[in-house]
Amino acid sequence: MGFDGYEADGWRSQWRRVNRWFDRLEEISKNRATHGSPEEWDIAYAFFQNAVFLKDWLVNSRAIEARTVEIFFDVHWELRLCQDVSNGTKHFKLRNPRSKILAMVPREYEDPGLERDPDQMVWLLGLFDENRGFGTIDVFQLAKRCMDTWRLFLDSHGLDPEEPTVV
What we know:
- The chain is mainly alpha-helical.
- The protein has helices spanning about 10-30, 40-60, 65-75, 75-90, 140-155, and strands at about 100-105, 125-130, 135-140.
- The longest helix is centred in the N-terminal third of the chain and has 23 residues, at about 40-60.
- The protein has one domain (about 10-110, about 120-155).
- Helix 2 (about 40-60) crosses helix 4 and helix 2 packs parallel to helix 5.
- The protein has a three-stranded antiparallel sheet with strand order 1-2-3.
């Protein structure tokens, strides 16, 4: 089979896509007035899915070996959790979690008459660790940690997202 248009810019096109989803998520986190509408969760899930897909783009464009990326995921809990959120929202049921932490969308009762300061709102992903119990993490903070970790990976392997791709 010949040239595929998706290959034109290699992994960098996926990196830009991840950044666009992150920008949408950041905009929501700055201007939130709710705990997470279905549309906001869709954007969060799309970010986590695309952030994980970057791994495949790096490997399939031959920018890096698969084992190198897998080892990096093994070392960074935020990428493992990102992958679990991605796989759980993509496949209906998470069969082989990458992390030892179960992530879930928390549901809580909120009095509709209760007024809240939007600046004090947090957008939480519920977590359960069998050794530590229940906890939460802010969705945007997890996304930011994933982005920072990916940047660390790209930088440490000499992969410049701005460098043009030669196909």
